[in-house]
Write a structure and sequence with these properties.
This protein is α+β, with helices and mostly antiparallel strands and 410 residues long. The protein folds into 4 domains: 129 residues, 2-Layer Sandwich (N Utilization Substance Protein A, Chain:P, domain 4); 66 residues, Beta Barrel (OB fold (Dihydrolipoamide Acetyltransferase, E2P)); 76 residues, GMP Synthetase, Chain A, domain 3 (2-Layer Sandwich); 58 residues. It has 17 helices and 15 strands. The strands form 4 sheets. It has a 5-stranded antiparallel β-sheet with strand order 7-6-5-8-9. Strands 1, 2, 3 and 4 form a 4-stranded mixed β-sheet that branches. The longest helix has 28 residues. 25% of the residues are buried. Pfam families: KH_NusA_1st, KH_NusA_2nd, NusA_N. Its main location: cytoplasm.
Length: 410
């Protein structure tokens, strides 16, 4: 097989991988030099001439003519008799350039050449994909569902790049079918071996932030700044926003008339409840806003230890805590404070952990999961509602309530 014929046989890689011809030729030269080193021990006395326009490649070996019988290095020296077979007027001491054909390398070397070329092109392709998606980290990306697995969904973009959406990066209510388009942010890109692994996320706070940029022009234009986003994916989120233009109401601009602007974001996130809050450097005011929709009576703050004791009317407590304790937990994450809620005008309460001798720890933990840490907080609840919100049986809840009531009846 002639050199040019081999190069033409490699054209499939150029077409399949969208690799430019100049890059292909550079890879070819590198591959051929490796083959020459294996065959002759070195390659520095070889000239490889690549013509990307014609798709041609020539290999020339340069040797010095020596007298017959004095050849010590066959790769660098050629006998006078052999040299004159190339050109009859060669003399001792002159340089000879002789073209090397692929057949001179041997069939096994040619097969190795092809395999090495495939490997180099894949490596080049993977490096480009890695760089492309590394630049897209933190950005929204859309790809199509290709394969659904137990622990992840495999997506393909328009260029056939594989993107992984792991189960723990999916919103709990997400349900996708093959062929459906999925939006998320490129969370991370890693090279495992020579292959890039691209991870998409729909649960990262950054996804919600980028959705705000896409859907709300003032955020995209920089008139409104998103200060912080915290989420319980698919359940609830809090977004702190600010504007340097006093004429703009950042919350109103983000939410829109009757929630019109934020509706598409809520729908994308599986009806996630999104609270948009005005950011302020006044930490006490920020905590008050973060606990919305609850109305706070007073706050006692410890700025050094980042704790806040919040006093509320009894009917506001459940609003502050929120379903599953999401509201108070997200408020704490948003403000950076550990927030404790107290009921105004209620006689002294007792923490549930004080009943550890009578109530099992795992039962106390179930109440804590939904933000109920004191005896009276539990006693104020409806039994049926507690059955629905916890993994506890009705009989267990009634037994706990009996224990707690006895504490205040004594």
């Amino acid at each position: 097989m002639e050199n040019i014929a081999l190069i033409e046989s490699f054209s499939e890689f150029k077409d399949d991988k969208l690799i430019d011809r100049v890059t292909l030729m550079a890879i070819l030269e590198d591959v051929f030099r490796n083959a020459l080193k294996k065959k002759y021990g070195e390659d520095d006395n070889f000239d490889i001439i690549v013509n990307p326009d014609k798709g041609d490649l020539e290999i020339w070996r340069n040797r010095v003519v020596v007298a017959d019988g004095e050849v010590e290095d066959p790769n660098r020296e050629i006998s006078l008799t052999q040299a004159r077979k190339i050109e009859p007027d060669f003399e001792v001491g002159e340089d000879v350039s002789e073209e090397v054909k692929l057949v001179d390398l041997g069939r096994r070397a040619i097969l190795a050449l092809r395999q090495n070329l495939i490997s180099k092109i894949h490596e080049h392709d993977n490096t480009n994909i890695y760089k492309q998606f590394k630049d897209l980290e933190g950005e929204i990306y859309t790809a199509e569902v290709h394969h659904i697995r137990h622990r992840a969904i495999i997506l393909l973009d328009d260029e056939g790049n594989e993107i992984v959406l792991p189960k723990d990066r999916q919103i709990p209510s997400d349900f996708f079918r093959k062929g459906e388009n999925v939006r998320g942010i490129i969370e991370s890109v890693e090279l495992k071996g020579n292959k890039p692994t691209i991870i998409m996320s729909r649960t990262a706070p950054g996804f919600l932030e980028k959705l705000f940029e896409q859907e709300i022009p003032e955020v995209f234009d920089g008139l409104i700044t998103i200060k912080k986003v915290v989420r319980v994916p698919g359940e609830k989120a809090k977004v702190a926003v600010d504007s340097y233009d006093d004429r703009i109401d950042p919350v109103g601009a983000c939410v829109g008339m009757k929630g019109s602007r934020i509706h598409s974001i809520v729908r994308e996130l599986g009806n996630e409840n999104i609270d948009v809050i005005n950011y302020t450097n006044n930490e006490q005011l920020f905590i008050t806003r973060a606990l919305s929709p609850a109305k706070i009576t007073s706050i006692k703050m410890d700025e050094e230890n980042k704790t806040a004791e919040v006093m509320l009317k009894p009917e506001e407590v459940s609003k502050a805590i929120g379903r599953g304790g999401h509201n108070i937990r997200l408020a704490g994450q948003l403000t950076g404070y550990e927030i404790d809620v107290y009921r105004e005008g209620v006689e002294e309460d007792v923490e549930l952990k004080e009943f550890a001798d009578e109530i099992e720890d795992w039962v106390i933990a179930e109440f804590s999961k939904i933000g109920l840490d004191t005896a009276k907080a539990v006693l104020e609840q409806d039994v049926e509602d507690l059955v629905r919100r916890t993994d506890l049986e009705e009989e267990t809840i009634k037994d706990v309530m009996a224990v707690l009531r006895s504490e205040f009846e004594e």
